[in-house]
Amino acid sequence: MLFLPKGARQRRRGVTTDFLIIGGGIIGLCIARELRARHAGASITLVEKEPAPGAHASGRNSGVLHAGFYYTADSLKARFCREGNEALRRYIHERGLRINPCGKLVVTRTEADLPQLDELHRRGVRNGVSLQMVSAAEASRIEPRVKTVERALWSPNTATADPGEVIESLRRDAQAERIQLLFDSPYLGRDGATLRVGGHRFEAGYVVNCAGLYADRVALDFGFSRRFRILPFKGLYLYSDEPPHRLRTNIYPVPDLRNPFLGVHFTLTVDGKIKIGPTAIPAFWREQYQGLQRFDFREFLEIAWRDLGLFWSAGFDFRRLAVDELRKYSRHHLVSLAQVLATEVHPANYRKWGRPGIRAQLINIETRRLEMDFVLEGDQHSFHVLNAVSPAWTCSIPFARHVCDEMGKAAGRGGG
């Protein structure tokens, strides 16, 4: 059954699509395909402001298929990460896309990391993740260059893929499934029931907001996201010029579990190249990728003011986080953080910065805390994916099913 209120088509003579999805990242594409699977006869339109899908976080992320042991068992991230890893692996194999099943070692830098390593192991066990606690000697057999104190966690199901290949495959699937994809079509606002999208005007039966960096803005137009705003963070990776496969596996440090960032780590690309990062540097406008490109003065004032407030009175240690992250603009500092995790890490090998990405991190403006889990809001007219940060790429297929389930509930109860 469609989410349209009973008789909506009769009352709204101008309806042009049953479902209008705003945002062409991996979440928007997977939700569009899930809606098609559930509603074979519905008209489904996905609009994207860029010339192609996945131009922002979905196409710029690390490509890591996470296993699902970082997250508390009561979180949506834990619920969907393990299942998403399996589902995305299956999709990649079925479509003949590339994957690097390299696994991951999580290592300790000092003895002080050991309790947190044990906590990660407990979370993995609770979440049903395949995970092994290994000794330092066993870790060295997995990856001869690894450094760790006493022990490490081995995640055999962590892998890497090419985000661009996955996004392009999903685009082809969506088109084959008769989903209308409109590119160069930014959401511009709404006049009552009419939505202005690029050069189009839509009256949609149901609106799904997957706008990523702009999800809060779109949601505010529909009366949602009152307590939340997007706080952008810039992520950069530094690439090694060593030959491929000089590392066998991803190497991550034990993270600070109070923050949603995993710290500087080694990631292997789908073709075995090494990169270190990412940073999580506060950005001053939503698309601050390079220099003053896409500068937005209004966003700059709003975000700079919010960052300044957080610097003095955040519900977490924003001041330390900001200072620590800004230091990572230094190539030598970033390399020094990676040197703690592995041997033979030389600054001379790390000279090329990769394409930056912006993390659309949601913050609760009442509590002044970062939202650690996915956040959804909606009613009988619209549904809003407000926080879909890492591991959303891994979770995308089962998460899309969950979003569609929640849409049905919201539409049925007529409230958020």
Structure description:
The protein is of the alpha+beta class and 416 residues long. It has three domains: 1-63 and 162-227 and 371-416, FAD/NAD(P)-binding domain, CATH 3.50.50; 69-159, no CATH class; 231-365, D-Amino Acid Oxidase, Chain A, domain 2 (2-Layer Sandwich), CATH 3.30.9. Helices cover 33% and strands 24% of the residues. The protein has helices at 8-11, 26-38, 57-60, 76-94, 114-126, 136-142, 163-176, 215-221, 297-313, 318-326, 331-339, 392-413; strands at 17-22, 44-47, 64-65, 99-100, 104-107, 132-135, 151-155, 159-161, 180-182, 187-191, 194-197, 200-202, 204-209, 228-235, 238-240, 250-253, 265-268, 274-277, 281-282, 350-353, 357-364, 369-370, 375-378, 382-387. It has a six-stranded mixed beta sheet, with helices on both faces. A hairpin with a 2-residue loop joins strand 10 and strand 11. Helix 2 (26-38) packs parallel to helix 7 (163-176) and helix 4 (76-94) packs across helix 12 (392-413). The longest helix has 22 residues, at 392-413. The protein is globular.
Overall mean pLDDT stands at: 93
Report the CATH superfamily of the largest domain: FAD/NAD(P)-binding domain
**Strand elements, count:** 24
Looking at the structure, what is the overall shape? globular
CATH class of the largest domain: Alpha Beta
| Uncertain stretches | 4-14
Q: Order of strands in the sheet with the most strands?
A: 9-2-1-13-24-23
Query: How far is the first residue's CA from the last residue's CA?
Result: 20 Å
CATH topology of the largest domain: FAD/NAD(P)-binding domain
- What is the rounded Rg? 22 Å
CATH architecture of the largest domain: 3-Layer(bba) Sandwich
**Major sheet, described briefly?**
6 strands, mixed
Number of helices: 12
Structural class of the helix and strand makeup?
Answer: alpha+beta
Residues in β-strands, percent: 15-25%
Whole-number tally of structural domains: 3
Helix content: 25-40%
